[in-house]
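Input record (one chain):
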Amino acid sequence: MILSTGRKYIFVHAPKTGGTAMALALEARAMKDDIMLGDTPKALKRRHRVQDKQTRGRLWKHSTLADIDGLVPSLDGLFAFTLVRNPWDRMVSYYHWLREQSFDHPAVALAGQMPFGDFACAAQTRSSMKASPARHYMTDAAGRERCDLYIRLEHFDLDADPLWDHLGFRQQLPARINASDRVADYRGYYSDAAREAVSEACAEDIDRFGYAFE
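The corresponding structure, as predicted from the sequence alone:
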């Protein structure tokens, strides 16, 4: 996450959507008072600035708008945006990323024990995905969705124009940052059952952003 009062924007980093690349691009033009939460170089250097802040939720790389309630007096006037990604592709990346992790978390354990198809169909996975559509990250502590721009990763050049208009400059995203070790074409990972499981769990985002299994 990056919150810039100087440039009047807030970038919310939803997991496995290309957000690290976006954070690095924005970081390259960061202002001295920008608040950064994450694991990019400048975010790590500035982490101490928020250590004593009392907020509604956890301050970390994937904080939601509700989580950061209390970080600044108000979010009014900030251009709020995030990235979204084809849910079938995102699930594949999520699974492979989990299999590379060693921290104690139910999803890490589940991915380590199951082949991809079983993981995608597992009740725990489906419940987690259904509970965290893009809207979840962009809903504030008062329960109000406040997103000025959802940028589809697959159509970045088209969708990002309103962001560049707001900032007054354009940035190029670095390629393949934090990429999972996987085959690029997600379709080969799917059985009919796994495809349908993602379709049901992520129905909100699929419908809202026009995604399809293609």
